[in-house]
Amino acid sequence: MSDLNLEDIKQLHISYLFQNYGREEVCFDHGQGEFLFDIGNCRYLDFVAGIAVNALGHNHPAVVEAVTRQAPRLIHTSNLYYIKEQAELGEAIASIAPWPLAVSLFVNSGAEANEGALKLACKGTGRARFLAAKNSFHGRTSVALSATGQPKYQSGFEPLLSRAFDFIEYGNVEQLKSSVTSETAALILEPIQGEGGIIVPSQEFMRTARDITTDKGAMLIVDEVQTGLCRTGRWFGFEHFGIVPDIITLAKALGGGYPIGAIVSSMEISKTFTPGSHGTTFGGNPLGCAVAKAVLSTMKKEKLAERANLKGEEWMAKLRSITRESAMVKEVRGRGLMIGVEMEGERANEFKAYAFQRKQLVNVAGGRTVRLVPPLIMGDQSMTALNESMKSFLTRPHPETKTL
Ligand SMILES: Cc1ncc(COP(=O)(O)O)c(C=O)c1O
Predict the structure, then answer these.
(1) Residue 313 predicted with pLDDT over 50
(2) How confident is residue 287, by pLDDT bands cut at 50, 70 and 90?
């Protein structure tokens, strides 16, 4: 139990922290599996998983063991020196990624991975025009934000953002074909738009993205920050489309909660960056890499891609049958354990508040979609608990449906 109560902690926040986040009325103290416990020791079911970060759940023994083994030995040296754990993590990523994605550069976040990937494509092609999708999200640093096709994130920062980006409708094959040109350095896409509201593109769109970039000598960057590492029922989201990108970016699940990201490409593309072209002080430090290595080997051992695929299909089928009759729900969609329930008007936000009262954490993506990205180890009982909440939310009297 904490010596500070929630009000004390909120006051400290107000006094000493930037107020750039809208936060829920809760502060967590510890976690176990798919459960979080607040400072009053009240238990919550976690369908957010740190926004698709805690893929192994909270306090997974493999993550804890890696931290406690590595931290006393060595936390940070520098990329001025060889780093054993970094090399081993690079090898582990090469073992799960399809050829020729075999070479990694480690950074600290998703935005930083995308920033580096876009620089890599610029230098590698000698071109400076980029294409991205409307409704996308690629991060908050300047180039990553330039690639983010949502005015709400760019507003107020425009003079800083690059005019090198054009945007196409996500899913519009004809627009895609006509927008990639011989001046395009790269097309950057999410294989499922996460922040945009769990939007799954067609096979044709993603395959065209691969074909047209190859034809025009541009690079295809697939942002796997949210979709990557078993979340969608495969190691990587792009695998659903039978394509292999030139560059992929990873972060979120990679460190099981420890901040680490990666740019992954072929050996040939990686050679674009020579000593001094790109770098970071903290990226690829021994502690982060040791933890990420443990995360990947646990995902392999526990067959979490297969599990996410199976559980996701079952869960989506249940959610569809619960919501089918309701005018409040427009669609249930997703892949694996990356599921969106799109609702009418403000219903998604209302459901979030309703679930919170029932000690279940969900969040809303794209304004109207309840996003479910739980730990990949989540048990059936927990999913059933969310289904029950959805059922009772949809059948309780709502102000507009009350008879007069
Ligand atoms: C697809 C995608 N790319 C990039 C990012 C940015 O990652 P980070 O917040 O680690 O910078 C996110 C974060 O939500 C994301 O979903």
Answers:
(1) yes
(2) very high
Please name the residue that has the structure tokens 């089918």: 324
What digits encode the pLDDT tens for the residues 206-260? 999 999 999 999 999 999 999 999 999 999 999 999 999 999 999 999 999 999 9
Domain span at 254? 74-301
Which residue blocks in 72-202 are alpha helix, DSSP H?
84-96, 110-125, 142-146, 151-154, 173-179
Same domain? For 229 and 285 the reply is yes
DSSP string of 317-384, one letter each residue: HHHHHHHTT-TTEEEEEEETTEEEEEESTTHHHHHHHHHHHTTEE-EEETTTEEEE---TT--HHHHH
Whether 1 is covered by a domain: the verdict is no
The residue among 278, 301, 324 that closes a domain is 301
> How far, in Å, from the CA of 139 to the mean position of ligand 1?
5
Domain count, the chain: 2
Q: Atom 16 (ligand 1): residue with closest C-alpha? A: 226
Q: Does pTM surpass 0.85? A: yes
Q: Would you say residue 322 has pLDDT above 50?
A: yes
Question: Same domain, yes or no, for 202 and 276?
Answer: yes
On whether both 55 and 79 belong to a single domain, the answer is: no
Kindly list the protein residues whose Cβ atom lies closer than 6 A to any atom of ligand 1. Answer: 51, 109-111, 114, 137-139, 190, 194-195, 223, 225-226, 251
Tell me the CATH number at 26: 3.90.1150.10
